[in-house]
Amino acid sequence: MELPPFAAWRFVDAVDGFEVVYARPGRLRGHTCAVEGGRPYAVTYEIAVDAAWRTRSLMVTSETLAGVRSAHLQSDGEGAWTVDGVAAPHLDGLLDVDLEASACTNTLPVHRLEMPVGRAVTAAAVYVQAFDLVVRRLDQTYRRLDEHRFAYTSEGGFEAVLTYDDAGLVVDYPGIAVRFA
């Protein structure tokens, strides 16, 4: 599944804003701008993945009323992580990143994992919050419903049916984002 050179999403419901990502082999470079609960933020990111779609690095910057924060995450591709050069054992075993401010990062496990129709796969991820760049584990599962739809669940009881295009990018993320380009 080859990604298009760019894609864009509008955020819906609780968040007003948008995301744009530029894709090239092994790299996703994106930007989000949004207002959530009356608080604005702008996030830029660059994700590097290896040939098996395992995340190898993430550079992320968040700008809010409180100022600018940046974080650099690196992985050995086998589940060992550092955050700003410091070992992060609480992330051991995780292979994907999931940015709170991004619909695009839901493409990573879809590309990385074999998911036949009907199969549910646990795909816990390194989760990076938009406002403060707190990095933590996010437990989530994907169950393939058909060629383009996955039942997605994450901790806290969130559930949605995500629709993807032929390239494996989210087209519709109910309550979160809708792709428009």
Task: Give a written overview of the molecule.
The two termini are 17 Å apart. The longest helix has 6 residues, at 107-112. A hairpin with a 5-residue loop joins β6 (67-75) and β7 (81-83). The strands form two sheets. This protein has a 14-stranded antiparallel sheet with strand order 8-7-6-5-4-3-2-1-17-16-15-14-13-10. It has a three-stranded mixed sheet with strand order 9-11-12, with no helix packed on it. It has one helix at residues 107-112; strands at 6-11, 15-24, 27-36, 39-49, 55-64, 67-75, 81-83, 86-87, 96-99, 120-122, 125-128, 135-138, 140-144, 149-154, 158-164, 170-173, 177-179. The chain is globular and about 45 Å long. It is built from one helix and 17 strands. It has one domain (6-179). It is mainly β. The model has no long low-confidence stretch (mean pLDDT 96). 3% of the residues lie in helices and 56% in strands.
